[in-house]
């Protein structure tokens, strides 16, 4: 029982650390449509992040011609992109679906967001842990 309570405390801490969608920044990347997992004439960052979260990917990137393309990224992909983090001013292409948001810049810059998929997995684990604790208490 003590282990379950300790695990619960760790899980609640992690849930506080993990966030939903959040901007990671502007990176040099391939905005090519061939690398895209989705495209839309009204693309916005949150739609791309939601799409990628459903695909189980922790990161999403928007960019390419007119900011129309969405790419879903793994932790490994982000590891390769990390050294290419760029100034936010380079991601200057307005998202076609929300002109106040930036969806990459030109063909060489992508706007990267965390999708919040890790937080969703932790919520699922928390629910399972609570059910297990209830079962042990009965």
Task: Describe what this molecule looks like in 3D.
By secondary structure, the protein is of the alpha+beta class. It has two domains: 1-19 and 118-138; 21-115. Helix content is 39%, strand content 25%. The chain has helices at 2-17, 45-54, 75-81, 117-137; strands spanning 22-28, 38-39, 59-63, 69-73, 85-86, 94-95, 98-102, 109-114. A six-stranded antiparallel sheet has the order 2-4-3-8-1-5. A hairpin with a 2-residue loop joins strand 6 and strand 7 (98-102). Helix 1 (2-17) packs antiparallel against helix 4 (117-137). The protein is elongated. Mean pLDDT is 81; it is low at 7-19.
Can you describe this structure in just a few lines?
It is a single-pass membrane protein. It comes from Branchiostoma belcheri. 39% of the residues lie in helices and 25% in strands.
What's the structural blueprint in terms of helices and strands?
Blueprint: H1 2-17, E1 22-28, E2 38-39, H2 45-54, E3 59-63, E4 69-73, H3 75-81, E5 85-86, E6 94-95, E7 98-102, E8 109-114, H4 117-137
Antiparallel strand pairs: 1-5, 1-8, 2-4, 3-4, 3-8, 6-7
Helix pairs in contact: 1-4
Key descriptive features of the protein:
two-stranded antiparallel sheet, 138 residues
Q: In order across it, which strands form the biggest sheet?
A: 2-4-3-8-1-5
User: How many helix segments?
Assistant: 4
Structural class: alpha+beta
Query: How many individual domains?
Result: 2
Largest sheet: 6 strands, antiparallel
Structural Rg? 18 Å
Shape: elongated
H-E order: HEEHEEHEEEEH
Give start-end ranges of low-pLDDT stretches.
7-19
Helix content estimate: 25-40%
Q: In percent, how much strand structure appears in the residues?
A: 15-25%
Q: What is the rounded distance between the termini? A: 12 Å
What is the average of the pLDDT values?
81
Q: How many strands in all?
A: 8
